[in-house]
Known about the structure:
Structural class: alpha+beta
Number of strands: 8
Amino acid sequence: MARKLGVAKSTAHRLLTTLCSRGMVEQNPETGSYRLGLHLYELGQLAQARNAVRHVALPIMSRLAEATGHTVNLAVADGPDVVFLERLETSADERILGHAGRRFPSHCTSSGKAIAAYNPEAAQARRDAGFPPRVSHTVRTQNDWDRQLVEVRRRGFATSSSESFDDVTTLAVPILDSRRRATTAISVLGPTARITPELDRLARLVGQAARRIGRTRPG
Length: 219
């Protein structure tokens, strides 16, 4: 940790001791290693519970998951990344996602593309951060990124195929505000073999869900 933070070991130890005293970090008494504490979990749950868009979106996401049979995600932009606020998984897709985190570089996800196509700041944040590859078909250049954002605006939805996970495809639609600007997107995820044959149907259903959330979201 001292190496990663660029501080002295004594400073890193002092920081960890302070975090332990606040419940943010826990130390394993047998190994001496550290892990995230329960208080961080509590704070995360509190932040999630107070998110107004999530409250509006949850029942709509549930209906979409039932109609499609696929995992449904709600994502929000955060700089060059997207963070998945909510994920309704099918039992089959749990094997795909495993313990995957909730934060992904936006160029690897359909949600990131959908938001960036209608959010110049999010699009530029990804350009500034670059396009590190994740799996076989991840966007790798600014030209490819810009070309895909144009395509999203033309079609009204974004896709990501073997860009976050090999042989997995996602389809996302931005949730637009009154200025036709996006900070949030809704998406479906599943094996490419299942998603690709019904792309048009899924685009219609996800688009309807995005518009419902957009009409009822606060502000």
